[in-house]
Prior knowledge:
By secondary structure, the chain is of the alpha+beta class. The chain has a single domain, classed as q2cbj1_9rhob like domain (Jelly Rolls), CATH 2.60.120. The chain is 19% helix and 15% strand. It is built from seven helices and eight strands; from the N terminus they run H-E-H-H-H-E-E-E-E-E-E-E-H-H-H. A five-stranded antiparallel sheet has the order 1-6-3-8-2. The longest helix has 17 residues. It is globular and about 60 Å long. The protein starts with 14 loop residues before the first helix and ends with a helix. The mean pLDDT is 95.
Amino acid sequence: MSQPAYKVVPPGFTPEQWEAFDRDGYLIFENALSPEEVRRYIEAIDRVVAKHPDYVAGKPFTPWSGVAHLDPVLTELIDHPRHVGYAYDLYGELLKLHNSQVFLRPPGKSGTKWHNDGARAVPYTAYAPTIPLQFKVAYWLTDLPHEHMGNLVVAPGSHKSPYFDAYTQPVDVPGQMAVCVPAGTMMFMNGNIFHTVQDNESDVTRYNIFYTYCPSWVCEADRLCCDEAWLATLTREQRIIMRSYKNPYDRTKPPAEDFPLYLDRDTGLDHDLDADLEVPLAIRKRRVLHEKIGK
C-alpha cells in the first residue's frame, strides 16, 4: 500500500492575530467569502432545511445533531483551508470537529441569555485557563448593518474569567459588542467568551454557520459515531478530524495511521526540529502555536 500524500497545514494565526484573539476572545475577517460562496452556503442550508423534520417556518432553527453530514457543501467545511489551519494551531495533531451547526434566526424574540459554551459547573478554564477547549468558526451569510437583527453579542475579554455578572440574564452589559458585519464575514470565537443573541426586529432572516473545534479527547457535541458509508466519502483529513472511533480511548491516543494529520507549515516535516525520532510518530510530542510563541 502506498503512503498517503500528506498535506501541509493551511495558514493560521499571525502573531498579531493571536495577540488580538488572546486579548479579546474573538477575531473578525470581513470579505472572507465571495458573494458566490455566500450564495452557495445559503443554498446548502436551504436544502437541509427543506427536508429536515425539525424545521418549522418562522421559528428559529438549528439542527442539534450536526450538519456536516447533511450536504456535501457543508462537508467541505470540516477541513476548509480558509479556517482549519487556525484550529490546528490550537489543537495540533489531536484536532477534532466538536460540532457543526447552521442557524436561521427569523424576525422575532431571541430568548437567548448571556452564557459561554462548554462545561458550566466546572468550566474548561479550570483546567485550561489560557487556551480555549472550544474554538468556534462562524460564517455570516446575511448582511447585518445594525443591531437588533438577531445579532450575536459578545463581551470582549470575558473569556479570561469563569465569572460574569450577567450570566443567565437577558440584559445589556457595559462594553458589549454586537456583531454588525456584512455577509461574507468569518469570525473566530474563544468558546469561553460570554455571549448572547439580540431579538431580530428586522424583516430579514439571519443565516449563519458555526463549526466548533476542540481537542480529540473532549467529547463531541452532536454525535456519538458517524455513519460508516458517509465516512467512506471523506478525505483522509476530514475522516480524522471527525474522530469517529469505535474504541473510546482512541480519542486520547488515536491510531498510528492517523498521524500525521498535517505536516508543519514552516518546515514541511511531520515532527518538530528537536524531536526524538526514535519515539514512534503517533506518540511523539509536537508543539502547538502557543507553545511555539511562548504564551
